[in-house]
Specification:
alpha/beta, six-stranded parallel β-sheet, 15 helices
Length: 420
């Protein structure tokens, strides 16, 4: 029996489908493991959680491909289906002066561990190949504009006809009932994120990373993991949909409840926190380094003042700054009082003293410095480089060596030639 054949077990007059990708299936009160599933269970014990799972990625740019790489990092086989005319658009998204092949720096951020095949889904013959692939898949990740998947015949309903147990993850801009095209930058504007980002007297500013795409990716991962659990319990797949707008609004966290509970529309105030002070406030040290304070309670503030050598008759000991509520109300005076003290200290010594007193503080580093300090997250293969997206640490979570981002159509022969 090949790994993708589905045997049927008859028990007490009922038929139960046993899929090789799952570690077990329940038949009434009986747990049945096939020989193939036992091998899969041993693979799980070897820390490749999703070995044997096949994922079809019909998605491009960042949100969907991030989900695909997540499954690849956990051992799944991820097949990225691309249009032969250029493939994923991010292959061509290169920064000024960037020298790379069809695997741009942007493309390399979320396409490790995948196999690339090219199919023109407008052509009936290629669409038939896609359906044959879907018949062998456990999960499909799609990010088509509303209506496009249906036109191409690769929507959830169409793929269910060839694989009734398939799990279909769909990312849209505004929901499947809204035909508008959703892009991270536009959703940042429409979700309120841009309105609260920027300096107090400046214009709204887009976040420099496509965080809405990443928020949506994390939401879809959660939904797909729930769908996998459900399928293991019931034997049925399902549709999981996430919109960029919903993901962005759900991520407003305390800024959202500042409006819902306190009735206050958050305003731009740079990096300063609206509810805590000094938190998010930045200061220059004597050696020209920027540091950020994240003082979250009154004890930490007292320790900060102590480390800075403040005299008891200093305004920093006055009623103006006695509690967090008062420090928030008098933030400008607070920052003006702290800056001269901090600017007289060298960053290494100050950071060491504050860390010893458990006062939250950080040196504002360049991106290159930050990455150099986290080499365990960096993946390299020849000229290719990227970052792992799964950072959870546990004895049962492995870190398999991933293949570099694929060239366009690199795996056509391997994947497509075997289709019948």
């Amino acid at each position: 029996m090949s790994p993708r054949q589905v045997p049927v077990l008859k028990s007490t007059g009922e038929e139960h489908e046993i899929r090789p990708a799952a570690s077990k299936r329940m038949t009434k009160n009986l747990i049945i493991l096939t020989e193939l599933e036992r091998k899969d269970f041993k693979t799980v014990q070897n820390k490749e959680m999703f070995a044997g799972l096949r994922v079809l990625e019909l998605a491009s740019v960042l949100a969907g491909p991030s989900v695909g790489q997540f499954f690849a990092e956990l051992g799944a086989e991820v097949i990225k289906v691309e249009n032969p005319d250029g493939g994923d658009v991010t292959r061509s998204w290169k920064s000024a002066g960037e020298i790379s092949d069809d695997r741009s720096a942007y493309f390399s951020c979320c396409n490790w561990g995948k196999k690339s095949v090219t199919l023109n889904l407008v052509a009936e013959s290629d669409r038939a190949k896609l359906l044959r692939l879907a018949a062998t898949a456990d999960i499909v990740i799609a990010s088509y504009k509303p209506g496009d998947a249906e036109k191409l015949g690769v929507d959830y309903a169409s793929l269910c006809k060839v694989n009734t147990n398939i799990i279909y993850g769909q990312i849209t801009g505004y929901g499947s009932g809204d035909e508008r095209v959703g892009y991270d930058a536009v959703i940042q504007a429409e979700s309120g994120l841009m309105d609260i980002n920027g300096e107090k007297d400046g214009p709204p500013i887009k976040l420099p990373v496509a965080f809405v795409d990443l928020f949506a990716a994390h939401q879809l991962k959660e939904g797909l993991l729930l769908a996998i659990i459900r399928r293991d319990r019931t034997g049925t797949g399902g549709l999981v949909e996430v919109s960029l707008l919903d993901a962005a609004i759900a991520s407003l966290a305390n800024q959202g409840t500042n409006w819902l509970v306190a009735g206050k529309n958050p305003r731009r105030q740079g990096s300063s926190h609206p509810n805590i002070a000094p938190y998010g406030d930045i200061f220059m040290t004597a050696d020209g380094k920027w540091i950020m304070l994240a003082v979250g309670n009154d004890r930490q503030f007292r320790d900060l003042v102590s480390v800075l050598g403040v005299q008891k008759d200093s305004p920093l000991y006055s009623e103006l700054f006695l509690t967090n509520e008062k420090r928030v109300a008098n933030r400008n005076k607070l920052v003006a009082s702290l800056q001269p003290l901090i600017s007289g200290r060298e960053s290494p010594g100050l950071l060491k003293e504050l860390a010893a007193r458990k006062v939250p503080v950080g040196l504002i580093r360049q991106l290159s410095e930050a990455i150099e300090s986290a080499e365990t997250l960096v993946m390299r293969s020849g000229a290719a480089a990227g970052l792992r997206t799964l950072v959870a640490q546990s004895g049962f979570i492995g870190k398999p060596q991933l293949t570099p981002p694929p060239h366009l159509g690199e795996h056509n022969e391997e994947i497509l030639s075997g289709l019948k």
